[in-house]
Design brief:
This protein is α+β, with helices and mostly antiparallel strands. The chain contains seven helices and nine strands.
Length: 198
Amino acid sequence: MQGRVRDPAGLRDAVNRWNRELAPGSRGWLGTTAGLTDDGVFIWLERFKSPRAAHRNEKRRAQREWWESTSALLDGEPTVHDCTDIESFGAGGSDSAEFVQLIQTRVRDREALRPFWTDDEGRAMAEARPDTIGGLFIVHPDGGCTIAVYFTTEEDAREGERRPMPPDLKAWRDNEMSHYIEEPTFYDLRNPWLFSPR
């Protein structure tokens, strides 16, 4: 889910309240990544074991009441995607990250992208970019996609971006990028709010 924020401080309080009061009763919940970009975009990425668990959580009275009050802190209706086509790489979503970057684009050929999210490719990327803890490749039902990348720190990530990529890894990445339609849009969460079951 993402949308523009009307009340950043109130939104942070609402997210903390969800983690404190609602998360303990969220059966099947695996973790949440949330945060604000510098220009006021709110990102909320929730992971569940199954669609059934996610929908069961949505139907809880406390969840509905929380969302009713929280949505008032946003400027207009947020965009929401229910996604079941998800692949993880590295350590996946990690609460130890100090910087999270989300990349959004559209998929040209979903099947052609599958070889790029194998464990072997993930290990090759981890060797070249030790600042990358892991992440998630999420395909939206409408053909868009979000790639969530979890980094040790923003400083490490920027340093990693400046280092030349090994030729074979660069060729691999260029091939991957040919399977997307649009230029990517980047959303930086410099102070991510990361929660997982205790």
